[in-house]
């Protein structure tokens, strides 16, 4: 499914984000930036060792040894990936108990898009951040993700944003949410 927003394109599709040919792909990382399971593991495996080396440098030099805070984003090269860049962000772990979880998830999308825009990137693919290992319910996460992307595209001239969903089930949830949000316009 595709939607035009202020001259930009928002696309939903089913696929493996490591195969995406957008200029940048987003990684749902953890604060260590040292890789992990899920999409993070898949991206590190496909990109190769050099990605981990650059992440280590960022931890050391940019973050002075600290973890990347939840909701923030950093950029690396894509190495063996078709995408030229990887933007790493850390989603919130769902507990359902904190009102800040939604804001943190929103920050992931907003900061990744902002960083891409600053670097002159005009196409980017996102996975469904936080809805795997971090257990954020996909119905709730889809509304946060799409609302944030739509607000960004309404105020910026960017290019193309893709949500690369890993299952038909997730795609259906995101599609229903996007149709609802576009109707409310
Ligand atoms: N392409 C697109 N989406 C994918 C892919 C892929 N190749 N592989 C998995 N997904 P998760 P989180 C989907 O768990 O919830 C890691 O260990 C997956 O089906 O990857 O933010 C990190 O190191 C789900 O819909 O990320 C962190 O510790 C979505 O990507 C932690 O998991 C996100 O699931 C982050 O958890």
Provide a descriptive summary of the structure in words.
α3 (100-118) packs parallel to α4 and α4 packs across α5. A hairpin with a 7-residue loop joins β4 and β5 (85-90). With 185 residues, the chain is of the alpha/beta class. Helix content is 42%, strand content 21%. It has a 7-stranded mixed β-sheet, with helices on both faces. It is built from 5 helices and 7 strands, in the order βββααββαβαβα. The longest helix is centred in the middle third of the chain and has 19 residues, at 100-118. The protein has helices at 38-47, 49-62, 100-118, 138-155, 168-183; strands at residues 2-5, 8-14, 24-29, 73-77, 85-90, 123-126, 160-165. Bound molecules: ligand AR6. Ligand AR6 is lined by residues 16-18, 28-30, 36-40, 42, 91, 127-134, 164, 166, 170. Ligand AR6 binds at residues 16-18, 28-30, 36-40, 42, 91, 127-134, 164, 166, 170. It comes from Compostibacillus humi. This is O-acetyl-ADP-ribose deacetylase.
Globular, elongated, flat, extended or rod-shaped: what is the shape?
globular
What ligands can be seen in this structure?
ligand AR6
What does the largest sheet look like?
7 strands, mixed
Q: Give the end-to-end Cα distance, rounded to a whole number of Å.
A: 17 Å
- Strand order, largest beta sheet: 1-2-7-6-3-5-4
Protein name: O-acetyl-ADP-ribose deacetylase
InterPro entries: Macro_dom, Macro_dom-like
Domain Macro: 1-182
């Amino acid at each position: 499914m595709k939607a035009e927003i202020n001259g930009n394109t928002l696309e939903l599709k089913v696929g493996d984000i490591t195969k995406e040919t957008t200029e940048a792909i987003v990684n749902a990382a953890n604060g260590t930036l040292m890789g992990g399971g899920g999409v993070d593991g898949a991206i590190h495996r496909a990109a190769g060792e050099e990605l981990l080396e650059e992440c280590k440098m960022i931890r050391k030099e940019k973050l002075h040894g600290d973890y990347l805070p939840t909701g923030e984003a950093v950029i690396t090269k894509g190495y063996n990936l078709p995408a030229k860049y990887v933007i790493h962000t850390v989603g919130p772990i769902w507990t359902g108990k904190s009102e800040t979880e939604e804001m943190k998830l929103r920050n992931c999308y907003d900061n990744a898009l902002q960083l891409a825009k600053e670097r002159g990137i005009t196409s980017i693919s996102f996975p469904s951040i936080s809805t795997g290992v971090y257990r954020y319910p996909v119905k709730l996460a889809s509304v946060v993700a799409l609302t944030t992307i739509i607000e960004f595209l309404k105020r910026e001239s960017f290019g193309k944003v893709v949500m690369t969903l890993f299952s038909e089930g997730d795609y259906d949830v995101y599609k229903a949410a996007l149709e609802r949000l576009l109707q409310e316009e």
